Amino acid sequence: MKFEGSNDRSVFARCDCGAFHRFDKNEVTIVDTNIYINDTYECQKCKYKHTSIDGYLSEEGNKAQELITSHIEAVKRMKAAAEEEIEREKHTVKCKKCGSSQVSVGDKGFGLGKAAIGGILLGPVGLLGGLVGSKKTVIICLKCGHRWEVGK
Ligand SMILES: [Zn+2]
Ligand SMILES: [Zn+2]
User: Fold this and answer.
1) How far is ligand 1, taken at its centre, from the CA of residue 25, in Å?
2) How many domains does the chain have?
3) Pair 52, 89 in one domain
4) Looking at the structure, do residues 101 and 134 belong to the same domain, yes or no?
5) For residue 91, how far is its CA from the centre of ligand 2 (angstroms)?
6) What is d(CA 143, CA 38) in angstroms, rounded to the nearest whole number?
7) CA pair distance 18, 2, nearest whole angstrom
8) pTM of the full predicted structure?
9) What is the pLDDT tens value at each position of the chain, 152 positions in all?
10) Containing structural domain, residue 6
11) Among 77, 57, 93, which Cα is nearest to 131's?
């Protein structure tokens, strides 16, 4: 049977035939990432006798996985927003020294990897820290060589 979810009192599982079954927590034994059914459970639909439930991650593991996924999504969104800002800046910006619109945007390194690792290891604070320190984009005039930071 495949693990479908759990709460304080129940474990939900689905048979290969598609039949859904709810077990009381006291009907199963959870050992690490495995769930064993105390008494063999015979599926009412296909009559298969089940002894265990597959695909279980511990609650902690599930939570950690969700946290990592949401952090990665947040970093992706922030990166996309930053890239959009850079794109806009690229099209509207003019060199403050010579007025040329021929400029190049040099990314000082957004550090997605670093931010993501910070998020996993340190939680939201680390994630923010990783992003804040890294969002420095430099614009370089291709004509006169003048360079300045985005937003300055
Ligand atoms: Zn079945
Ligand atoms: Zn210039």
Assistant:
1) 20
2) 2
3) no
4) yes
5) 15
6) 77
7) 10
8) 0.41
9) 999 988 889 999 999 999 999 999 999 998 877 899 999 999 999 999 999 998 887 666 777 778 888 888 898 998 888 888 777 766 677 888 998 888 877 665 444 444 444 444 444 444 444 444 445 677 888 899 998 887 66
10) 2-56
11) 77
